[in-house]
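Annex B. Sample input.
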Amino acid sequence: MGMGERKLACIIGLCALLVACGGGGGGGTSITPPTQHVAAASTSSASATASGPIASFLSGVSGFRIQTQYHGLLDIYTSSSTTYVGAAPYIGEEVDVVGTGSVETNIQATTVTQIDVTAGTPAPLPTPEMLSLSGPVDLIDPTEFEIDTSNYGHMWIQTNSGTLYVGGAPTTGDYETIGGTGSISGGVTALIASQSSSAPATTTASGTIAGAAPYGFTLDVNATYSAVPIVLTASTVIAGTLEAGALASVTGAGSTATSITAVQIVVTDPTPQASPTPTPTPIAQTHVLTAGYLGAPDGTLTVTAAQAAPYLTWAQTGVGDADAVQAAGIETQIYEDPNRTVPDNTLYTTAADGGFAQTCSGTDVTDFTDNVTEYVMNPGSTVLQNAYANLLNSIKATANFNSVFQDDSGPLSEFSYTFSPSLPCDYTDAEWIAGGEALDQAATLPVVANGLSGLDGENPSELIQELSTSNVLGGNMEECYTSTSEPESDGWLWTATENTELQVNALGKEFWCMEEDYVDASANTPARIYAYASFLLTYNPSLDVMFSRFTTPSGLQVFPEEELVVLDPAVSTPASVSSLVQSGGAYGRVYNECFVAGKFVGACAVAINPTSGADVPFPFPQFTHTLTVSGYGVLDGGTLSTTGPAPPEYIDGVGAVIAFP
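Annex B, continued. Sample output.
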């Protein structure tokens, strides 16, 4: 990325200096934390038993609360090793609990036994009425795709962070079956999109209803297909009551390998079945979304595109390698900086007549960074916009790219260096952001705008406003959670980074987290875990991109920990990271389904202490192992383990833990 990296590194470098001088608390919008607080699970090894009806489920952890006869409400913690005899827990179910702990505090359950099936019954599942559409995919945009339906012709299907893709994200030419909300006239938003090679045939599947889903429910058919999505529509005929644990026969279009849009459902046994919670099947996503440099001019020349493809989602590369990289299945990206120029750049010449930012006296505005004088361009200039579009068109005529990494985006007030002789004439941030939006729209490639690290004081960058533009895929943040000068970012800087991640995702845009710690990866594993735990705390698996810069022998900077994909958070995504503060001061979040290289490894949790000089309690005692990493990248023999030592009782200042059962 050249000069863009160096300049914006100065911005975060200034932030780090402010932290050292005593920066204050975090920014972002605050919401009221949940009122239900769960006490820490008992660490006692004494045997304990208790009985009673289930009154409620615990918030943020795995477990439930029972009403005992002599001790009132009692918290019961469960884990992947808990054995269930009878139905899976539901409100009103009478259970007998055996485990360790005390009836005076709480119990870590080893066995939960259903003792009275008449004491309560599972609540009937909701029956959402999805719109069902299907057809081959014609066109694809970042947040929507078009299918050719048999009944309504060509229709655009909207997607968002909640859309479930079965079989992978839509690709041109594949056949998609949609279950969604909205209307034919007003537009449809997909809750589920199932991919197949052709129109699905009618099938019948029988199994146990596993649980409710936004589109209907999931059906446990067998060990291979333990969570088949069943889509309910207004025309679905249901005989019986849909309940978690009941046996049901489903007939409709689809297959157990993808999903079934139900025409008819017959509940053959309404009594919940005594079966353990099914183990999730492997998932297609074998790593979080990743980015890196590959090939000339800035990437490794020793790793081929085919070698990188299993691990790399995005590659920033040049015109000479782009086609080969894209052919290997990696998204390609070109670097450009239309916001600054120097005499040997194309835009210096093509945008000379009106594209430069100037003072009121007509003098060109410059900045000076890394011993280079750069000319500040005016993003609101149609001269610059047209020259930029022509430049990208010339690149596209030479090689295939999926996006442009657009450097130095955002208002000038958020850059740390001085502009000479002054800011542009009558400068305002609002006008500059509006100009940036126009420049983004002029780009003939989707834009990833680099500049999120230019913070608005101690708050997220005003650049976020610009990301709402339709041609913008997302924004990049340099020195994200880690940098060479500050291996573990802390205090308000850490808070601002987390809230940036949340706010970018709230727009449905990609958050690119560029870890700019240019140090030996093998020798700096604590910084790697700290940054990755921080990334996972607020991430969206379909929107957030890890762009690591720790050094490796091969030059491919993708690491084993990035194969850990966490899903189904126990606490929904908040508006501010302040809502994820746990008792004792750590920030943390539990995920019910965690996968390594696509394989299920149980629940997991991330816990971070971003405060220097103060230890805080580890907040999730139900987890007994930690993530450990060793070595370098995925192509350099690097490894990870989910069975590392037990979590510490206290997390060190500016430290993090990723924990497993």
